[in-house]
UniProtKB/TrEMBL annotation:
Residues 93-164 form the Transcription elongation factor GreA/GreB C-terminal domain. The keyword Disulfide bond does not apply. One of its GO terms (molecular function) is translation elongation factor activity. This is Transcription elongation factor GreA. It holds the Pfam family GreA_GreB. SUPFAM superfamilies: FKBP-like. It comes from Roseovarius halotolerans. PANTHER family: TRANSCRIPTION ELONGATION FACTOR GREA. Residues 1-29 are annotated as: Disordered. One of its GO terms (biological process) is DNA-templated transcription elongation.
Length: 168
């Protein structure tokens, strides 16, 4: 048979993908972030079980390798998670801290609301920013009425802290 019509192992089907990089920062998470990681682990385990249930023809496939790699990442993040719960009394804190929701106004008076969360929980389009992001670093430890400088690629933006709380 012509070699062009035979399938040889060429390494294109992964047996195990390299692990995803793990942040060097402490893995602080909110209680919601921990729950999200736990739910993601359960979903990945179910996906792996489903893919393996398709028999030998799924062994070594990209979807399975990706799911296994992602599960290793989530398990590592769960193992290193440091849960930072909001204060029991939910009283407004005197300064911006991990887990806090902050309302700010820029130089033009446009307001925005951000919540400082862990890296795996961050969703900037939803106002959830990683504690290690430039914006969060600018806001952390600021109090109501403080003006902070947020370094952006387009220049420095001044933000006034209008309100701090634990809204989540």
């Amino acid at each position: 048979m012509n070699k062009a019509f035979t399938k040889e192992e060429d390494g294109s089907t992964p047996q195990r993908l390299p692990d995803l990089p793990i942040s060097q920062h402490p893995n602080h998470v909110t209680p919601e972030g921990l729950a999200q990681l736990q739910a993601r682990k359960v979903a990945l385990e179910a996906e792996i079980e489903r893919l393996r249930g398709h028999g030998d023809h799924m062994a070594g496939t990209w979807p399975l390798a990706v799911a296994e790699r992602d599960l290793r990442y989530v398990e590592a993040r769960l193992a290193s998670a440091i849960v930072i719960a909001p204060p029991e009394d939910k009283a407004p804190p005197g300064h911006v801290q991990f887990g806090a929701t902050v309302r700010v106004a820029d130089e033009d008076g446009r307001e925005a609301v951000y919540t400082i969360v862990g890296e795996d929980e961050a969703a900037p389009s939803d106002g959830l920013i990683s504690a290690h992001s430039p914006l969060a670093r600018a806001l952390l430890e600021a109090g109501v009425g403080d003006v902070v400088e947020w370094p952006k690629p387009t220049g420095i933006v001044e933000l006034e802290v209008l309100d701090i709380g634990f809204a989540r």
